[in-house]
């Protein structure tokens, strides 16, 4: 689903990604860990071309995203992304947030988009909020709406960038539960998170980044019990 090879990204003279290579197979759940500033967001954003890379290659679902001939909107339609900030449209109701892109991008009828939107709201547990504005929801509810909105596009791949980092502690669980449900259904997921319980439980593979590079990669079992690199051990000692 994702094939990244020697990806390099600069911001000015600062190297934010330093020859990053990894693969994600269909249905796989990969959790990316690493200290603040290690390049996790830049990597995720590069996967759907919110950042353009300076060298290397990223192929998403068979499409080379840096090929000038590639229609990047096509790639973005297949890739859902959920951010730390929920980015809902504040002046649209919850259900309208879910139907807009379905109608405009997927060319679905209003009726079809509404049905799909309501089904997804039920799935994330907030069907009763369909007609309210996002500002009336808690952070956890807003993030569940944001996930549902992504899912409405039938993405082949979901990217999550610290989806629970802006939430009050008591709301983290409800968002992680939705993500675990998605994982069980077989969604291909790349998740940047500091939730180690989620990483242990859900990840097929953990990638640890530091200073723009992948330092260590392995199963959660390997990563949490017998990491090889000093930087990984240091990181774990600081957060566990
Ligand atoms: P992480 O998500 O792991 O915290 P980021 O990918 O956000 O790290 O950032 C990696 C590095 O790149 C940081 O040092 C950050 O300051 C820098 N960076 C990120 N985005 C930009 C930008 N748009 N312009 C300049 N520097 C940036
Ligand atoms: Mg980040």
TrEMBL record:
Keywords: ATP-binding, Nucleotide-binding, Transport. PROSITE patterns: ABC_TRANSPORTER_1, ABC_TRANSPORTER_2. Residues 2-236 form the ABC transporter domain. InterPro entries: AAA+_ATPase, ABC_ATPase_HisP-typ, ABC_transporter-like_ATP-bd, ABC_transporter-like_CS, MetN_ABC_transporter-like, P-loop_NTPase. SUPFAM superfamilies: P-loop containing nucleoside triphosphate hydrolases. GO terms for molecular function: ATP binding. It comes from the Bacteria. Belongs to the ABC transporter superfamily. This is Amino acid ABC transporter ATP-binding protein.
């Amino acid at each position: 689903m994702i094939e990244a090879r020697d990806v390099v990204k600069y911001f000015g003279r600062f190297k934010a990604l330093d020859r990053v290579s990894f693969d994600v197979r269909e249905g796989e759940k990969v959790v990316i860990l690493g200290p603040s500033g290690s390049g996790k967001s830049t990597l995720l954003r590069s996967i759907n071309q919110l950042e353009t890379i300076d060298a290397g290659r990223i192929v998403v679902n068979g499409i080379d995203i840096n090929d000038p001939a590639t229609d990047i909107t096509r790639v973005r339609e297949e890739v859902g992304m959920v951010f730390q900030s929920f980015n809902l449209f504040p002046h649209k109701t919850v259900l309208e947030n879910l139907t807009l892109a379905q109608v405009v991008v997927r060319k679905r009828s209003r009726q079809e988009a509404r049905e799909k939107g309501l089904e997804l709201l039920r799935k994330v547990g907030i069907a009763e909020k369909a007609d309210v504005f996002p500002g009336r929801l808690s952070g956890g509810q807003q993030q569940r709406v944001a996930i549902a909105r992504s899912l409405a596009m039938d993405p082949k791949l979901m990217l999550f960038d610290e989806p629970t980092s802006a939430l009050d502690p008591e709301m983290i669980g409800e968002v992680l539960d939705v993500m675990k449900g998605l994982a069980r259904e077989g969604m291909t997921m790349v998740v940047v998170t500091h939730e180690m319980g989620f990483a242990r439980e859900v990840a097929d593979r953990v990638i640890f980044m530091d200073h723009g590079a992948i330092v260590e990669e392995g199963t959660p079992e390997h990563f949490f019990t017998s990491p090889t690199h000093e930087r990984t051990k240091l990181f774990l000692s600081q957060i566990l």
